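Sample entry was shown:
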Amino acid sequence: MSYGADLDDHYMRVAIYVDKILKGTKPADLPVEQPTKFELIINLKAAKQIGLTIPPNVLVRADKVIK
């Protein structure tokens, strides 16, 4: 299992920062932002190999399930 910041959302935020810098904003003037979107990824194949059973209610909440 992996739970962390959504990288696609993170890359879009980086693009917005780069755009602001290229338009003349000083990097020191830009606020530090925390991730706002997270994703849960479950690898069922790996879980099966180590003998773990993932409850169905956890599988339903996952953003991605690797079979």
